């Protein structure tokens, strides 16, 4: 009966553990029943069932494993497991006990997957329980209440034999009022890798550590000399601040042997934050909101520089363009591949200038490593000769019983670097719960060890996790990598070395067809209209930049904005992506419209020829040049421009100024003529909107001209007659003065003869002076300019000479 009680769920003694493991298959057979010599319908069997039974498949008690250390124990280590148990039922659980059970050896990767799916199933085999001295007991578990537990067991007590991965489970047994017998009410399966000795052929493991974010910068910049950048949100500041997602990625990655995979746009955006930046709709004078994170940005970039100093760095094309969307919808739009080439070219310069390391740009990384022939073609069109793909979307080979090495030559000098799907996806999901994080770490280690034990061939394995891990996911990845680096079966390797390793001749090299591309990923791709809008914006940019005196102020920010418009991060956010692209195009239209022709009203011409001014206004900060202004007459029979139907003149206008361009017109007839003014670039493409205005021509007739001519002739004759008359009067006056002088001299001579006294005092021939008042008034004398001065006071309003 004691043995029967052991198999009914009571804690086994050490003497019975061997019997429990070796006799599990025979536990329910007649042979075992005969050995126990129990009657089929005995009251003892009715009171105590033959095996622990669960209240339900999931168990009425939730068991979590929040910590398992060490994750991969060696001989002499002590395994410590801790977590919580929570009564989810409506009845209290009494005489509860939490213990460890070591199950069977999981010798295949698929068996680990199956165990992970059923990790909470109480009906799954749980193996024999460790000695009851390594259990924790609870007298009562109240419904809805959680209780912590911690169990520490020496590794030697776990009876681990063959190297490999074991199913380690934490079980809770107890009773309820409606089921008053000992039974398993909750379980949590996890994995315990056991490889105490160093493997001769260690697996070389490459872990990609991505520094990628969403799009934050716009195409807009300030009009100041520094071109103050404009961000559409301030979320990047939160990511790089202490405790933020990107801050944690850098802090955790710096101590790990990983390959850094970086989007240069992220670095450029953070560098832009090191000076003043603006956010539309915010108060730009508030330094706490706008431009208040310079020190945070500087600190983060410094930490990144330190972290990557001695590590391999792979630079993605600027903005991390969506290669699959480009291949499926963008290649039919002219110019789309040009943007990918530009994004690749600028990537290396950006990373090197900011991080002071020379990155590799030989890699393309499609979304989730899913490829088809068109994606491979696009990925390599910009110069990459290595494409990171994932094993679950790439053919594995000819019924291989092991996981082949990562590199696969796929033709044309291109290598597909196949990342292991199980290791790459194990960190997906919510890792904020300690139980989920611990389970992911143990599953990662279990898959890695099982892979290493598949064959004694040396292999290179690549892990490509999700592009933008959360802070919790990054923490979990770091724990897993740290445990793997300390393991006995794996050693770190950078991505370039993995890509150059010798390919496995038995591995498949066929690129999956387009029909095999996951439909779930196709639904998230950028549509063709997105690439058409990008191409339209690029065409506008090409027409705009040729007139600028400093093209870099516009070409650089808009070029990078167009790269961002194709980013992977827009997947699943079609509305936000459309708003961003439209914002870039609208802002470019706004800038282009700052160079324009001023509207004109109707112009009147009175005569056969006249000059018409047309004003060009430049409201940009920089000057514009290489423009031609053309003035065209729609009716050259009536009105000609410089003797022809149109005339062109070069235009160059300084920033913030206007310039008037004058055109000579010739009228041939009366009436109204329509004139069109249009700016053109030097290559003959119209620039901006034309200005149309009317010119009203009034033709002057021959009769009017004769009348005017006659009037002018009469004025000339009258003037000539007045001139001759004045000349004759002046001559007559001069003659009269000479006669008066002669007469005066004769009179003086007579008087001198009669009066000698007078003649003695005056020289001969000199007459006495005569005042104007004494002189006789002559008819030709001019009138006086002013009246004689008066000593009387002047009257009011009169002029006073001074």
From TrEMBL:
Keywords: Membrane, Transmembrane, Transmembrane helix. The keyword Cytoplasm does not apply. Pfam families: DUF6049. The chain crosses the membrane at residues 700-720. InterPro entries: DUF6049, Ig-like_fold, TonB_box_CS. Residues 737-747 have a biased composition (Acidic residues). Residues 493-524, 731-802 are annotated as: Disordered. It comes from the Bacteria. This is DUF6049 family protein.
């Amino acid at each position: 009966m004691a043995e029967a009680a052991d198999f009914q769920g009571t804690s086994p003694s050490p003497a019975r553990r061997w019997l429990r493991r070796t006799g599990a298959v025979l536990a329910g057979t007649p042979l075992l029943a005969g050995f126990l010599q129990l009657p089929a319908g005995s009251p003892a069997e009715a009171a105590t069932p033959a095996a622990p039974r669960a209240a339900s498949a999931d168990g009425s008690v939730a068991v979590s494993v929040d910590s398992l250390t060490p994750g991969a124990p060696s001989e002499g280590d002590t395994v410590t497991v801790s977590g919580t148990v929570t009564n989810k039922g409506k009845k209290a659980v009494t005489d509860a006990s939490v213990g460890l059970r070591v199950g069977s050896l999981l010798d295949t990767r698929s068996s680990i997957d199956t165990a992970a799916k059923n990790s909470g199933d109480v009906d799954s085999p749980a193996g024999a329980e460790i000695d009851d001295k390594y259990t924790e007991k609870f007298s009562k578990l109240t419904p809805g209440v959680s209780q912590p537990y911690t169990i520490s067991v020496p590794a030697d007590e776990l009876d681990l034999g063959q190297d490999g991965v074991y199913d380690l489970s934490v079980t809770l047994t107890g009773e309820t009022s409606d089921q008053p017998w000992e039974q398993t009410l909750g379980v949590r399966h996890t994995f315990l890798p056991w490889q105490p000795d160093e493997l001769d052929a260690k697996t070389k493991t490459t872990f990609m550590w991505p520094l990628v974010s969403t799009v934050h910068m716009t195409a807009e910049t300030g009009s100041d000399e520094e071109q103050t950048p404009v961000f559409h949100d301030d979320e990047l500041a939160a990511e790089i601040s202490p405790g933020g997602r990107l801050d944690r990625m850098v802090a955790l990655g710096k101590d790990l042997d990983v390959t850094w995979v970086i989007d240069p746009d992220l670095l450029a955006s953070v560098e832009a934050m090191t000076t003043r930046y603006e956010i539309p709709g915010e108060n730009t004078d508030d330094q706490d909101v706008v431009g208040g994170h310079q020190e945070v940005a500087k600190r983060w970039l410094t930490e990144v520089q330190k972290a990557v100093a001695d590590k391999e760095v792979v630079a993605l094309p600027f903005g991390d363009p969506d290669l699959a969307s480009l291949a499926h919808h963008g290649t039919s739009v002219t110019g789309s591949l040009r943007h990918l080439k530009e994004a690749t070219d600028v990537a290396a310069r950006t990373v090197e200038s900011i991080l002071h390391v020379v990155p590799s740009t030989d890699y393309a990384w499609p979304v989730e490593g899913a490829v088809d022939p068109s994606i491979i073609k696009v990925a390599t069109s910009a110069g990459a000769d290595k494409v990171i793909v994932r094993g679950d979307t790439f053919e594995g080979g000819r019924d291989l019983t092991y996981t082949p090495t990562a590199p696969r030559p796929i033709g044309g000098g291109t290598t597909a670097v196949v990342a292991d799907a199980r290791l790459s996806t194990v960190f997906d999901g919510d890792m904020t719960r300690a139980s989920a994080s611990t389970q992911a770490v143990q599953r990662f280690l279990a898959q890695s060890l099982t892979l290493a034990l598949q064959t004694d061939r040396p292999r290179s394995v690549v892990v490509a996790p999700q592009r933008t891990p959360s802070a919790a996911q990054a923490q979990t990845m770091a724990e897993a990598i740290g445990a793997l680096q300390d393991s006995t079966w794996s050693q770190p390797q950078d991505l370039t070395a993995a890509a150059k390793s010798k390919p496995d001749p038995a591995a498949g090299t066929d690129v999956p067809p387009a029909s095999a591309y996951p439909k779930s990923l196709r639904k998230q791709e950028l549509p063709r209209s997105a690439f058409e809008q990008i191409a339209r914006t690029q065409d506008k940019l090409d027409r705009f930049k040729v007139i600028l005196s400093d093209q870099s102020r516009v070409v650089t920010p808009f070029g990078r904005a167009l790269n961002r418009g194709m980013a992977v991060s827009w997947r699943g956010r079609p509305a936000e992506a459309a708003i961003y692209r439209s914002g870039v195009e609208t802002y470019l239209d706004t800038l282009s419209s700052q160079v324009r022709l001023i509207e004109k009203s109707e112009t009147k011409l009175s005569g056969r020829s006249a000059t018409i001014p047309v004003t060009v206004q430049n409201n940009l900060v920089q000057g514009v040049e290489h423009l031609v202004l053309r003035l065209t007459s729609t009716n050259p029979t009536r009105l000609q421009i410089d003797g022809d139907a149109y005339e062109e003149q070069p235009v160059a206008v300084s920033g913030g100024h206007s310039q008037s361009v004058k055109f000579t017109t010739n009228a041939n007839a009366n009436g109204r003529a329509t004139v069109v003014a249009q700016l053109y670039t030097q290559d003959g493409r119209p620039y901006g909107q034309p200005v149309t205005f009317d010119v009203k021509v009034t033709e002057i007739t021959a009769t009017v001209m004769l009348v005017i001519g006659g009037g002018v002739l009469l004025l000339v004759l009258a003037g000539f007659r007045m001139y001759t008359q004045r000349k004759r009067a002046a001559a007559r006056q001069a003659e009269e003065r000479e006669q008066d002088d002669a007469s005066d001299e004769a009179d003086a001579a007579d008087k001198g003869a009669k009066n000698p006294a007078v003649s003695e005092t005056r020289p001969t021939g000199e007459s006495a002076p005569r005042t104007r008042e004494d002189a006789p008034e002559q008819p030709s004398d001019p009138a006086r300019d002013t009246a004689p001065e008066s000593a009387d006071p002047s009257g009011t309003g009169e002029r006073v000479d001074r």
